[in-house]
Specification:
This protein is of the alpha+beta class. 13% of the residues lie in helices and 30% in strands. The strands form ten sheets. It has a four-stranded antiparallel sheet. Strand 2 and strand 3 form a beta hairpin.
Length: 365
Amino acid sequence: MEANTISKCSIRAETKLRNGYPNWWCFTHFSSARGPGGIQLDICEKANQPEITQDEKIYIDLDDYPGGVGVWGSLEAIYDTKRDVSEKGVHVHLRREEDSEKEVDKTYKEVYIKSSKDLFEEQRWVKIDEYVACAYTASVLFERKLKVINCRHCGKLHVDADWFAVHYHKKHFCTFCGRDFIDSEPGISNPVVALQNEFQHKMVGRTIKNVNLPLKVYQKDYPGGIQIWASNPAIIWTAKRPEEAGIHVHLFADKTPLPSSDDTYGSVEIDDIVLDPLMVRVFMVQKSFSFLTKHIISLTCPACNKDHFDVGEDAFIPHKVHKCEHCFNEFKDSTRLKGVVSNPIVSRLQKLEENLQELNKNQIS
C-alpha cells in the first residue's frame, strides 16, 4: 500500500482493522485517515491543525537555572471571567537564583528538556507537549501509579490520556503508529516517568506544602476578571523550596493582560461562596475528561440535605447509587443518565456565574 502523495500527509495502511478494513494512518501527523466504510481520506484528522510556532516552544537546560525549574501540566481554569484564550499546555517557571524573580512564567505548547549526550556527543532534547503533560496531571491528581511502556510495534514511548489516564488496562493504542498492542499487566503509561527517572538526582528532597494564606474577595471589585486553577504536582521541580499546594487565583482590577494579584491560597471565598481546595482540584481534572463532561453535577443527600462529594474512583466513574459521606444514606440520582459523579463545586461555580450576570445587568441598567 503506497503512501498518499496528494497532500502533506503521509498515509499508509500497514495493518487491517478487525472488520477487515485497511487501518489508514498518517505518519506525518500521527492521526487516523479513515473515512466511512474504511475509505482512505485525502488528509488526516489533524492535517488542518495550526502548526506550533517557535514562541509556543521553549528549550531548557536545567543546569542554567540553579534557582529552580518548575514544569507542570496546565489544564483549563475552572472559572475564568477574563475570557482569555485558554492557557492549557505546559506551564514553566525558571529562576536563575533561589530568591530571584521568575525569569520565565509562561504556558507553552511544547517544552524541550536538555538530556544527557548520546554516543555521538550530540545534544538530545526530550519533548513534553500538552498532550503528555495534561495526561500526567490527570493521572497524578487521581493517584494513579504510572509506568513507562514502549509500543511493541514501533518502540515509541506510549502515553495514556483521557479515560485511559485513570483506568489501568493491558491493551493500548499507539498514537504514533496507530496500532494496538498488549502489555504484560494492566497499567497506565506516561513518558514523563522516564524523564523524571533521568533527572531524579536533581529533584532529591522535593516536598509539597499546603498554603495557609486565605483569600476573600468580591467579583464587583475585579471588573477585569477572575481566573481560578487548582495547584498540581510538578513534572519537574528542582528548586530547594517546597512546592505550594492550594488554589491558584489571578485577580484583574482592570482590563490588562497581567493580573493585579497572582498567588496560591489555602482557602478561597468569592462573593461569600467558599471554594474547597480538594473539590477544585478534582473538578479541574474531571472537566478535562471528554468521557465525563456531561456526567458531572452537584447532588444533595435527600436524607440530611448536605452536599455530596464523590472521591476516589467514584470521582471519575459515573454511577447511579451514591452513599452520603455525612449520614451514610444510599440514594439514587434523579437524572436520566445511567450514572453521574457529584462535585459540589459545580453548583458553587454556577452561583458565581449568576452573581456575575446580575452584576453586569445592574451595570448596564
